[in-house]
Amino acid sequence: MVATPSGTVTGMTISHLFLDLRAAKKTGIVFFEDETFSRKVYFKDGDVVFSSSNTDEDRLGKCLLRAGKITNAQFDASAELAKKTNKKQEAVLVELGFITPHDLVDGVRLQMQEIIYGLFSCRSGSYQFHEGLLPLADITPLQMSTQSLILEGIRRLDWQTVRKTLPPLKTILHPAAKPSGLFQEAAFSHDQRTVLSLIDGKRSIEDICSLAGGGDFNTLKAIYFFLCVRLAQAGKMQTDEDRTPEHRPAHTAAPRAEERPDESAAHSTRLMLQRAFEQMEGQNHYQVLGVSEQATAREIKKAYFTLAKLYHPDKHLHLDLHDMKANLEALFSKLTEAYNTLSSQAARDEYDLSRIKGARKVEFEEDKTDRTGTAINQFNRGMKEYKAGNFWGAVEAFQWASRLDAGKSKYFYYQGLALTQMPRRSHEAEEAFKKAIQMEPSNADYHAALGNLYLKSGLKSRALSVFKEALNWDPESVQAKEGIVAAGG
Length: 489
What we know:
Helix content is 56%, strand content 8%. It is an alpha+beta fold. The chain is globular. It has 22 helices and seven strands.
């Protein structure tokens, strides 16, 4: 029996529903509805064979246009003729020679896929499965891979959707008791396999982000994927007693004498880390990552992930190297700065140019116009990434803009906004907002953003003080007024 034949579309509903129907080998139609659309997905023996929609954007002509199969002029001409002759637009496209009958079949498949992919981003509405024979006279069944549909549907989700759906960071993740055989580990990337190996029923999402070494954005996307395809499941919230040894606070995790790590291993690790810290001083970004100046983007990424796992501040706490935490953080920060610079082609070009100028010992002052223009371009890129929900990319761009032109308060303000959307970056967000306020203290929006950050962190009295300061500069600030009410002022 299918566990959820009807219900409300929330979170991971679509992937779970498709997996249920496939496991039960069901035949029938799922009806999806909300205030803006009505869509149907047809299943035969658990596999998707057709889909339909009543929205204009899901029509075949629009799908062909978005895919670049026809031009705007061809779309307009066929739409006009279809209206006059009362024919379907796709039939007119074939008659006019704009597409072939073979293209039409491919177009129908594309249309059905796009309808299904659109369902994955839905977070409202209802669905109901009606079991029974399919109306074969009304549809043209096409065999489609449920695995591929789920994979692509999840891949297309923006970060904002993923972030809102994930459980709290303190949630412990468990391996699935009965994992689906539809998704094989061989098809996963190296980063995904690393994340999957860390899901052991003891570590929280936050722990896994710290240990994976692939960056929080990639790690959280991988976790979302494994939850969607039921290779992992969420458990209880983590307490100090639940935490794994490498993440347990020192005062509660002191091992017994017979459990202490080998002292020789700790000594060797200490020497290795100290040597890396000392060598870091004076190294350029390429030397920090240990790559040549002709290294490809792939080589740079591989070098970073390898070293990030080696030098992460949390990696060696179980070896009683707490006194080296500051050095580790500096080492990891330098490593991350090098990667952020060299992994962006624009930032890498700018960095290479600055090194060339430094090597030549140029006597004249650098052209500030070039730096300002590049900063603006980076800021615009950051805004594009921010609006798309890619907050990691946005922070990188905003940081680069502020390095090139440190006099623009808005660069720091938006950097703070992006950081508030990322796990474990509250302190950096606070510093960014404070810098923006220091540069432009009369901007009430900057004060309100800092107040909201404090409110989100549970610091109500501090938030209240900042909101009141915002009102001093702008008595009509809606954000500040709402913040005061939320803070209980």
